[in-house]
Amino acid sequence: MIILAVFLSVITSSSSLYEVVTAAADPQVPCFFIFGDSLNDCGNNNDADTKAKANYKPYGIDYPDGPTGRFTNGRTAVDFLAEHLGFGNPIPPFTTAKGDSILQGINYASGSAGILDETGKHLGKNVPLGTQVQNHQKTFSKIAAMKGGKDSATKHLNGCIYYMSIGSNDFLNNYFLPKQYKTSKLYSVDKFTVHLATTYRDKIKTLHHYGARKIAVVGVGKVGCVPHMMDMFGTKGSKCIQNVNSAAQNFNKQLKKLVVDLNKELKDAKLIYINSYGMSDGDPTILGFKYITSGCCKSREDGQCVEGETPCSNRKEYVFWDSFHPTETGHKAVADRTYKSLLPSDSDPFDLHSLAALDIGVKSGRRAEETSERGLEL
């Protein structure tokens, strides 16, 4: 079913080694905008006509508000990143964000969504990347009204972090489901990853037109190691499904190239690449994980938790919560390494903490104003 990957930390004897303490002060950036899939969804799918939703128990069993639509037992990676960046509250979902809260950011992520519009639609409705970007254009207009104009809105947004983590479903809920989707017949893996990256690039450039200057692009993790995928397709004696992981690696190469190319093209912006695939290397037992190929909750046929079932009590020992998504502990491991790199390979050219510290000022509000008036093709 939904998305991605195994996020594990490595070579440290304790996850607390990379605990980041945030002082009670102003956030490091004015706002934090999140684009993605069920790894980041915090409630956007709750009222959608889809199987890809998590607003029921045992989801949220360790979250203060209970089930909220987060596809895990507690907080997600972006919840931890918001804390690291100094925000006092989680970034709200687009469906419920209102008033002045939008000035500090919005979470647009949607379970089962992908870069391509059709991805995940066999599960029901979702909000693909293109629509998430369109939703941000609406946010831009609202911020412009609050700030007294498009120039002021652009200046505000120039300092914000834009976090983009999407693409796993384009493989798991599209390319590798030939009975539901034709993409594997239309494209080789190489051509498909180029198609994804080209589409992704267009969306990033649209965001840039609407003020985005600090952009984190997160690579796809080891989707071939997801328990549901291994159960469905079999591993043929390997630890994971190698051809699925190879496709993810191929796509990540395209993403890294995209980041390099856009850093050259967009002189007034900075993009970084987060190597989630590489963070999955190493021995997870070093961090105290004991259960690596099974989820903590009893899963339905589609890989999500069975509603109302009692999950395992030793949740910190599990990498996976259901048959697709990490536990809160897994989410925290990747968030800590995203914010401050543990290894040089974790991010390129630097980590999210360094991106937040960059001084990127507005060059001209004219581009945003012209773009807003004529619109961009998505």
Automatic annotation (TrEMBL):
A cellular-component GO term for this protein: extracellular region
Biological process according to GO: lipid catabolic process
Molecular function GO labels: hydrolase activity, acting on ester bonds
Pfam families recorded: Lipase_GDSL
Keyword terms, alphabetized: Hydrolase, Lipid degradation, Lipid metabolism, Secreted, Signal
Segment forming the signal sequence: 1-16
Predominant cellular place of this UniProt entry's protein: secreted
Alphabetical list of PANTHER family matching this protein: GDSL-LIKE LIPASE/ACYLHYDROLASE-RELATED (PTHR45650), GDSL-LIKE LIPASE_ACYLHYDROLASE (PTHR45650:SF75)
Protein family: Belongs to the 'GDSL' lipolytic enzyme family.
Descriptive protein name: Uncharacterized protein
Lineage: Eukaryota, Viridiplantae, Streptophyta, Embryophyta, Tracheophyta
